[in-house]
Structures are given as structure tokens and as C-alpha cells.
Design brief:
The complex is a heterodimer of chains A (about 325) and B (about 375).
Chain A (H helix, E strand, L loop, with lengths): L6 H17 L2 H10 L5 H9 L18 H14 L5 H7 L13 E2 L7 E3 L6 E2 L9 E3 L8 E3 L20 H4 L6 H37 L1 E2 L2 E2 L4 H27 L2 H26 L10 H12 L5 H15 L2
Parallel strand pairs in A: 1-3
Antiparallel strand pairs in A: 2-5, 4-5, 6-7
Helix pairs in contact in A: 1-4, 4-7, 4-8, 7-8, 7-9, 7-10, 8-9, 9-10, 9-11
Chain B lengths: L6 H17 L12 H18 L17 H13 L9 H14 L2 H13 L4 E4 L15 E5 L2 E12 L6 E7 L10 E7 L5 E6 L8 E12 L3 E2 L5 H15 L2 H21 L5 H30 L7 H24 L9 H9 L9 H12 L7
Parallel strand pairs in B: 1-4
Antiparallel strand pairs in B: 2-3, 3-7, 4-5, 5-8, 6-7
The chains are: A mainly alpha (about 325), B alpha+beta (about 375).
Chain lengths: ~325, ~375
């Protein structure tokens, strides 16, 4: 048993980190907040060329031919960099929606509840849906995740005839194929896992931000990180992130639906609570627009609602637990 | 990154499982928790069976009489024995997981020959004389004095929280041999015979009502200098070598047990109707997810140890923090499933709930573990 990333997997992760640091560093992140341009088409294509979306497509179909463990490591890096855009849906659409694999198409999904859809205005397609529906914009809590409310599936490019009502849930319409129930649950599980990986990256990043700030910021004549109260916040952040990390990696290896649900649950909690604690460590500075902490927290809130909520994950796990208790 | 076991590891598991299937039905009846001599005999009897079957000291190096098993094989051993309901390591805990490995790593050839075989055969029991009334989590502040007198140290002081002291033959004792040195230096590691004149053991009653551990008073106890493991005043380093073992694999069996307990809890809740309460059901579901992750974290840490050559890393502190809190959550959830029934000491859940309270204290409190994580992993400055 070697439950540790291989050399190749470490290299892959390092390569993606390097690419994102170069192409989507802090200045680019703040520029997207300021301009409201959340999906940079040139960057999207570059990600496509780097294999971000086609990572799991077989080589025969023009993909990279890697598996979920590799995808999870790559998405962890995207989460760390706070890269915006419908990354998970476009990745899932590779090989299904033309242009998704290459990053020439932006694909979103009905992965949020309440009829809300992220990045609808930027999207060329919706995963599993026949077209892109019209929707009314909603002011989004996360400046990097524009939201629309969709009330019917009428294709915005067609003549307006409605082809169904939107219940907004991920398995309501996220798959248009014949074996839809299998397709849907598979999308849903994979979507949950990849989203968990994004959360994991964010959770690990906020530990770094908190530790760095705690080591620099001085109060009462010493770095605040020397105070136990601050130390303990940081230590708990790392514990949450490390438990989430093993849950996410293990779920990527086993692909067991209950394990995936557990990974989503723990990664959501790690991302949200770590961002909160990071904000706390930053004190008044953490409550400002210019600190990046709120961007991590708000994105973590969005992702916690995507693909599999805590309530759904807990119910799924409870069912599995009862089934295991024979 | 995978979770499949090699063919060799699968063989090892299959042979162990087959052996457990034969050995366990032949076990004598388990003694009552307060019958200390009975518990000693029971625990040592199980150790002897393991020894005869070639499973004693599985994770010890071969030149110390062990089997030199890989960390993964040790993990499989702990997983399978717990799954099969085999006796817990019990009275042998300190000898097998602590004093033994310390002597194996730091002792002389004579010391290894004298002390290691009896631990493996189940002939002798060790206890841990580390903590003192004024030196618990701040272990380096210990004050028990050892003064050189010819070929002996003369030891005076007191120890506390000494598990199994009542039935131990030997004590791994930390003493101060140089009071003038900085507090982490000037400490030495001694093997003290528990029947030496001047050793008084007084049992302490825990909040669970049992006498799991004791106070120990040392009044001019003579311990031969030859019983010192490692150099004089080097005892702190010697101790740190083995504390990481305690934090590395000490809880493997318990994580397996907690997952089984959760399953029993779900069944109980289903039977008494509490399962219909979505709040409780979701709470149990979340715990199932958490303990699943803790099991994976165990495998992760063991894989890491294997990669780095067998020494458990500092990840043990991360694990202990998460695990000790989850365990308390588990038994709080159990109390909710049982309702007022959880107030009865006849329920095993209740005793386990009480004992779970020690997990955030023993082997370094959660607060000390958080300092370790913050300073040694995250690199935050030392301070107050």
C-alpha cells in the first residue's frame, strides 16, 4: 500500500501550481475582481492546452489519459489559486460538449439549488442540457461567481419556446444521455469530488495566509503567532485541512460514493471554517475588501452549495452507515 | 497514490486472520476490570500466544527480537486483531510500544538481552514513570532527583498517572541527574525495578470509577547505574525518540473499533426509533464520514512512515487532535441515541463515554498538541 502521491503526481501538481502562479497570480485575481471579467477566454484556452479539461479523456480521444487522483491534485491547485470559472462542469463536459476539452468552450452546469446557475452569462453550453437557457442576473455574494436565476429551460439562442421547467438541482437535468440516471449520479459524484478538491486547495491556502500574517504582524511587542490563542486557531486549520486532504485523495482512489460524500462534507467544512479563522487571524485587516480572505470564504460558500450539500452528504453517509451495520 | 495492498500484504492478512480464527475461541474468560492480577495474567497470556505464533514484536527490528515488519504489516496486524475482537495490548502497552522500542533503539547489547525477550514473551510488565504532579504536559519540568552513589543512583521524588503501576515489574523512569542544567537537559532514562525498597504505589480512582492508574512515591530508591539507557543527562532525547511511536500507531485499533461502534449505534437507533430524527441521523452520518477520513489518515501516515524509512512523523499530532475530539463526539452521539439510558453504568457506552474524556488529555493535551503543530509544522514563533 502506497497511499502517497507518486513522483509523477507530485510533478503534475507542481507544474500546475507554477502555471497558475504565472498566469493567475494575485494581480490577475484582483484584476478580475475589479473588472468583473471572471472567465478569461485566453486563459481558459491555455488551461485547455495544458490538459486541464481533457485530463481524464483517453489519449485516443485527444486527452491526457490520467485518472481522478491526478484530476484532484490539479483541482486542488486551482482552488489554491482561487481560479474562477465553471472549471468542474467544463472538465466533466470534456468529450461530451465540443470545445470543452480544448478550453475553447465554457460549460456550466445546474449544480446549484434554487434555480441558480453560476457563470451562465459566460457559458457556451450547460452540461447535459440541450441549450443555454435565459436567466435573470442575481447579485452574487462572491464577486468572482456571477449568478443567474433560471426559471425555465428556454434556450436563450432559440426563439423562446420553453422546453421544460428548471428545478435547479444538479440531478434535475445535468445529463441528457439515454442512461440518464447512471450518467447523472456519476456526474454528481465526480462533480462533488472535484469541487471538494477545489475546497481543499482553498483550505490549505488560507492556512498559509494565516500563518504568514501571524508571523509578520506584531502586537504587544511580538508576532501575534507567538500567542497560543492564535497558534491554536492555526493548528486547528491545519488539522481540518489535513483530514480533508486524506478524505479527498482516498475518495479519488476508491470512487466510492459514500467516501466521495464524506470528502465533500469535510472539504466544505475545512474551506469555510479555515477561511473564517484566517479572517479572524487577520483581525481588522481581514474585514477589508483588499484582503483576499473574503474571496476564499465567499467562494467556499458557493462551492458548499454545489453538487452535494452537507445535508445531502450526511443523509447519504447515514444510509451507508446503516447498511454497513449488519 | 493507491489503497491496494500488495500480494505479500494480502497473504500476511490471510494467514493472520486464519490464526486469529483458531486462537481466539481458545481464550480464557476475560477478568473483571477491577481484577488487576487477573488482567495481568490475561494480557500476558495473550502476549505469550502471539509470541508462540510469531506475531510478538511485529514492528520491532529483527536484531531486537522482533519481526521487522513493515509499517503497513503492522497496520494490518492492528486492524485485523481489533476486527476479530482480540484482546487489547493492555498491560503490555508500555513494554511493547514504548520502553521496548526505546531500549531497542538506544540500549546496549546487555540491556537489550536482559529486557527485550521478557516483554516479547509476556513474562514482564512495564509502566511509565514520566509525569509528575508539577510536570504533566510540561514534562521537561520534572523534579524527581537521582544522585549518583557508587554504582547506584539514589532516586527520590514522586510520579503520577502511572498506568499499570500496580502490576508492573519495571518502570521506565525519567529522573533529573543534573539540576543545574537547562530543563530539557540533565534528564536521564532509567529502568527501575518496581520491587525495589522505597517504591510505594497508591492507586488513583478515575472519574469512571476505576483504578486505571496510580501515584508512585520514590524514597531513596537505589537503581543501578547499569540500568540507565542512553547517556547520562541525555534522557530527553531518548524519550522523544519513542514518544513519536506512541503518537504514530497507538490508535489504529481504536479507529477500527470506533467505526464498528458507529455501526452498532446506527442499528440501536434504528431499533429504538431515534433514527427517524433527521438531526440525529445526520449527526451519525457526519461522524461516519469523519471516522472514514481518520482511517484514511492512518493509512496516509503509515505510508508516509514507510516512505521515510519507518519512523512515524509529526503527523501523529495532527491525527491525535482530530481523533481525540471525534471520539468524544461519538460517545456524545451515543448518549443521544440512548437517551436517559445513557445514565446507566450498566451500559458499556456509558463507561466508554467516561473514558473518552481522557483522550484530549493523555499523551499530551490537545493544547500542547496544538502548540506542537503550530511551532514544529507551521513554523510559528515560540512564545507564551
Amino acid at each position: 500500500m502506497h497511499f502517497q502521491p507518486t513522483e509523477e503526481q507530485r510533478d503534475l501538481r507542481a507544474g500546475v501550481r507554477e502555471l497558475l502562479a504565472r498566469r493567475y497570480g494575485r494581480e490577475a485575481l484582483r484584476a478580475s475582481v475589479d473588472t468583473g471579467v471572471t472567465v478569461d477566454r485566453a486563459l481558459w484556452r491555455e488551461l485547455g492546452e495544458a490538459g486541464f479539461f481533457a485530463l481524464r479523456l483517453p489519449e485516443a480521444e485527444g486527452g491526457v489519459g490520467l485518472g481522478l487522483p491526478e484530476a484532484v491534485l490539479v483541482f486542488e491547485e486551482a482552488g489554491r489559486a482561487l481560479l474562477p470559472g465553471p472549471l468542474v462542469a467544463t472538465h466533466l463536459a470534456a468529450g461530451v460538449v465540443p470545445g470543452a476539452a480544448a478550453g475553447t468552450a465554457v460549460v456550466t452546469a445546474f449544480d446549484l439549488g434554487d434555480g441558480l446557475v453560476a457563470y451562465l452569462g459566460e457559458a457556451d453550453a450547460v452540461l447535459g442540457a440541450p441549450g443555454v437557457p435565459a436567466g435573470s442576473p442575481v447579485r452574487s455574494a462572491d464577486p468572482l461567481t456571477p449568478l443567474h436565476r433560471v426559471t425555465s429551460y428556454a434556450d436563450r439562442s432559440a426563439d423562446g419556446s420553453a422546453d421544460g421547467s428548471a428545478d435547479g438541482s444538479a440531478d434535475g437535468s445535468a445529463d441528457g444521455s439515454a442512461d440518464s440516471s447512471i450518467g447523472r449520479s456519476s456526474y454528481r459524484s465526480q462533480g462533488a469530488l472535484l469541487t471538494a478538491a477545489l475546497q481543499l486547495g482553498s483550505a490549505l491556502r488560507t492556512v498559509e495566509l494565516a500563518v504568514r500574517y501571524a508571523g509578520e504582524r506584531e502586537q504587544f511587542g511580538q508576532p501575534i503567532g507567538a500567542f497560543q490563542a492564535v497558534k491554536h486557531l492555526c493548528a486547528q486549520m491545519l488539522v481540518r485541512a489535513e483530514v480533508a486532504r486524506t478524505a479527498v485523495y482516498a475518495a479519488a482512489v476508491t470512487q466510492d460514493p459514500a467516501e466521495v460524500a464524506g470528502a465533500k462534507l469535510l472539504a466544505d467544512a475545512a474551506a469555510v471554517r479555515n477561511a473564517r479563522d484566517c479572517l479572524q487571524v487577520h483581525g481588522g485587516m481581514g474585514f477589508t475588501w483588499e484582503a483576499d480572505v473574503h474571496l476564499h470564504l465567499k467562494r467556499a460558500w458557493v462551492r458548499a452549495e454545489q453538487w452535494r450539500t452537507a445535508a445531502e452528504a450526511e443523509e447519504l453517509l447515514a444510509e451507508e452507515l446503516l447498511g454497513s451495520a449488519v | 497514490m493507491d489503497l491496494t495492498y500488495t500480494e505479500e500484504e494480502q497473504d500476511f492478512r490471510a494467514r493472520l486472520r486464519a490464526w486469529l480464527g483458531k486462537a481466539l475461541p481458545e481464550l480464557p474468560v476475560k477478568p473483571s476490570p477491577d481484577d488487576w492480577p487477573g488482567r495481568r495474567a490475561y494480557d500476558l497470556g495473550w502476549q505469550r500466544r502471539l509470541y508462540d505464533a510469531g506475531y510478538a514484536g511485529l514492528h520491532w527490528p529483527v536484531d531486537a527480537g522482533g519481526r521487522g515488519a513493515t509499517p503497513t504489516q503492522h497496520l494490518i496486524f492492528l486492524e485485523e486483531t481489533e476486527r476479530a475482537g482480540a484482546p487489547y495490548v493492555g498491560a503490555n502497552f508500555v513494554g511493547l510500544l514504548h520502553a521496548g522500542p526505546t531500549i531497542a533503539a538506544e540500549g546496549s547489547a546487555e540491556q537489550r538481552a536482559r529486557w527485550l525477550p521478557p516483554v516479547l514473551r509476556g513474562d514482564e510488565v512495564w509502566c511509565q514513570g514520566f509525569s509528575e504532579p508539577d510536570a504533566g504536559s510540561d514534562l521537561a519540568s520534572l523534579r524527581t532527583r537521582a544522585v549518583r552513589d557508587g554504582d547506584d543512583y539514589v532516586v527520590t521524588g514522586s510520579k503520577i498517572w502511572t498506568s499499570h503501576a500496580e502490576v508492573a515489574d519495571w518502570c521506565e523512569l525519567l529522573v533529573r541527574t543534573d539540576p543545574a542544567a537547562p530543563k530539557h537537559r540533565g534528564i536521564s532514562w532509567l529502568a527501575m525495578p518496581m520491587d525495589a525498597p522505597g517504591v510505594t504505589v497508591r492507586p488513583l480512582r478515575t472519574l469512571a470509577g476505576s483504578t486505571e492508574f496510580a501515584e508512585m512515591f520514590l524514597d531513596e530508591v537505589r537503581v543501578p547505574v547499569a540500568n540507565r539507557v542512553g547517556a547520562e543527562n541525555d534522557g530527553w532525547r531518548v524519550t522523544m525518540v519513542t514518544l513519536s511511536f506512541e503518537r504514530g500507531t497507538a490508535f489504529v485499533g481504536e479507529v477500527v473499533a470506533c467505526r464498528r461502534t458507529l455501526g452498532e449505534l446506527a442499528r440501536t437507533a434504528k431499533a429504538n426509533g431515534r433514527w427517524d430524527d433527521p438531526v440525529l441521523r445526520r449527526r451519525l452520518g457526519r461522524l461516519y464520514g469523519e471516522f472514514g477520513a481518520l482511517w484514511r489518515l492512518t493509512q496516509w501516515n503509515v505510508s508516509e512512515a514507510e516512505r521515510s524509512g519507518g519512523v512515524p512523523g509529526i503527523g501523529g499530532s495532527v491525527f491525535k487532535l482530530a481523533y481525540s475530539h471525534a471520539r468524544q463526539e461519538l460517545y456524545d452521539a451515543a448518549a443521544e441515541v440512548l437517551g436517559a439510558g445513557s445514565l446507566s453504568l450498566d451500559e458499556e457506552w456509558t463507561l466508554d463515554r467516561l473514558s473518552s474524556l481522557s483522550y484530549t488529555i493523555a499523551a499530551g493535551t490537545s493544547q500542547i498538541q496544538q502548540n506542537i503543530v503550530a511551532e514544529r509544522i507551521l513554523g510559528l514563533p515560540k512564545g507564551r
